[in-house]
Design a protein that fits this description.
- The protein has 820 residues and is an alpha/beta fold.
- It has 31 helices and 22 strands.
- The strands form five sheets. A seven-stranded parallel β-sheet has the order 3-4-2-5-13-1-14, sandwiched between helices. Strands 15, 16, 17, 18, 19, 20 and 21 form a seven-stranded parallel β-sheet that branches. Strands 12-6-22 form a three-stranded antiparallel β-sheet.
- Strand 18, helix 20 and strand 19 form a beta-alpha-beta unit.
- The longest helix has 48 residues.
Length: 820
Amino acid sequence: MGLFESVFDKNERILKPYYRILKKINFYKDEVSSLKAESFADKTNEFKDRLAKGEAKKSILPEAFACVREAAKRTIGLFPFDVQIIGALALNDGNIAEMKTGEGKTLVATMPLYLNALMGKGTHIATVNDYLAKRDAEWMGPVYEYMGLKYGFIQSGMKPAERKNAYEADITYGTANEFGFDYLRDNLSYSLENKVQRGHFFSIVDEADSILIDEARTPLIISGPKEDSSNLYKQFASIAKRFKIGKDYTIDEKEKSVSLTQDGIEHTESILNIENLYDPDNYKYVFHLTNALKAINFFKLNDQYVINNGEVIIVDEFTGRLLPGRRYSEGLHQAIEAKERVQIKKESVNYATITFQNYFKMYEILSGMTGTAVTEASEFESIYDAKVLAIPTNMPVIRKDKDDYVYRSKDEKYEAIVDDIVKRYEMGQPVLVGTTSIEKSEMFSKKLKNKNIPHQVLNAKFHEKEAEIVAKAGEKNTITIATNMAGRGTDIKLGDEVNDLGGLYVIGTERHESRRIDNQLIGRSGRQGDNGESRFYLSLEDDMIRLFGGEKLEKLMDIIKIEKGEPIENSLLTKVINSAQKKIEGIHFGVRKNLYELDLVMDKLRTEIYGHRDWILKGENIEDHFKEMVLESVNRKLAEYESIPDKKELKKIFGFLDEKQIEEIHRENIVSIPDLEKIVEDKILETFNDKKEEYEEEFKEIFKYIALRVIDENWKRFLEGSEQVKDSIRLRAYGQKDPLIEYKKETYKLFEEMVDSINDQTIDYMMRVKKIDKEKSEAKAQKDFNMLNAVHSDFSSISSKDKKESSKDVKHTRRFKVKK
């Protein structure tokens, strides 16, 4: 038995119990269909009561699902098929449900969302853009309301009060970005009332492969402005143009890395008039030069980015969508701005950061749905502990997926594609042309205009408009050119007579690095048993083939003597292409796994610092907490002393004590370090209590404000330091050291130093604090908060090849004490 068959045998075994539950759900069909409208809300209250009394969720599931099914029929005219129920059961159990395009995933989600909302903890459904979040919420909203529940949705421009209201609903729709950013913003808040989220219980991730796999490399970052260094970016953009590839530097296209040669180093030293480029004081020059060279070699206008109104906008490599507001991290975006001679935006400093991987792992139950997930099953299971289940289609898929055509050159390929489009147009058959970049879309558009072929171009700039166009892409005589994934989430329904013409014809203009993205494009055709057809057109000059399989194919073409303009179509060809895609998928998985392992380190520390921050926000037992800080700080500061320090040394150690207190300590008859510790601790706590009496009821708020500001400033510096650690540990791989282990050591050391700094600074500020204007302080904190930017960054500092596999672990030597 082959691997493919064994995988699907396992899939059938896992699905088998769901069919037994389906029978129970169908058993309730007649009973719930006879219920009056008002009875559905009563059923919801009944289910809540049963759960509150300890009944298991699974025991009320069949009746609850049957009620939602009937509610959907009455409100939006949709009655879930049996296979949709199977998908809903898979989601309810925390699996990734692979459901083909057109199988009704949006409707499927209503059942597990409803059931888990009965727990009273809120349920979330995350999707890829604001348009889909709003559309799906308003589309399915009547189902929830009929059942007596409230629904809400998050949009990028919403105010905090609107967001909080949406999270208070039983079911909340939003983008993955907004859910993640709201979590980070909540952990920069200065009052519990301003926090908008209320926990992480149950989540369904729509288009799970896009969010949990493709976007996993790109951390969410809350950042603020940093000092201006735009002149250096401009200087090195100019210098980089004078460098010659091969002579001054080399590049690795697969890893997207740049290395200076000895000639390049000497060339740089000559231009800058410095003796040693790698002197620590000259680190910034290496940083700026490598970024400038990366900007020239790996980032092309109208491919990786476009320029709109003088601003560099990233193009999503997987979807082709423009990503306004998102910026490449670590100065790379500024290097591109300098290259293109547009205004260079100031660099930013990070205040908070998290990856989708660690954000979504916070949910007690995480599930996902998508049209393509089986190829990434091992990644979903290893990182998210979620099984991928292939849900059967309601109708058999009869689409014809033709073998790839491979040409020698891109020009031959482009000519063949246009000829095929013209032929299909003359037949009346609709065609969807998938491209990998905006530039390619516009190139094909120009060629079709020259042939007088009417068509639509989707560059993923306007989600709502693109959904409308994609929905009509199945009409007769319709030609649609779209970047990968444009209009994802919208079904393409066939127009009259189109099924008889062969259905929607999908042309792939080149293979994507991921088989899954290709499958997504193909899957736009042949929905719900419709006819359909697909074919990919490739050339030996395509990047993916050139880098990972071009030589083999070129030899094959020479052997079988393929003439110019003729394609090769062979089973061996498919194996070579699949092998190339698997290699690239392995590289990308390595990068994502590497980022995940690095962020796991950060996740432990982030959880500690945010837990501590929450405890301070609640303002409980602050006296005990302050006393612990004092005991730790005093003990640490005196640990290196064997004899009693003199008065001058005491002042140096405890700078926050005034002259009178130092004098009083000095006059004491102290015979040991423990005695000194006790006296210093008493002096600090005495001052603390004096301040408490002086400020009365305002004292708690003053302490909270100071403690939170100290934590936030130190956490900000810690994040900056940990990024520098990432930069530096790459070099250690060459010294036979595991970068991950080194990162753990260095980061935990930084964290301990940060905790010490937080304790010392909090004591220092509380000893010196004078009455503050609470309103003014809060206004300043809010102003700083409003200046922060939410960005979805890209390009982690450590490449997958730098990290060696290791089973070793580094234990954190001292935990940051989090009060409960």
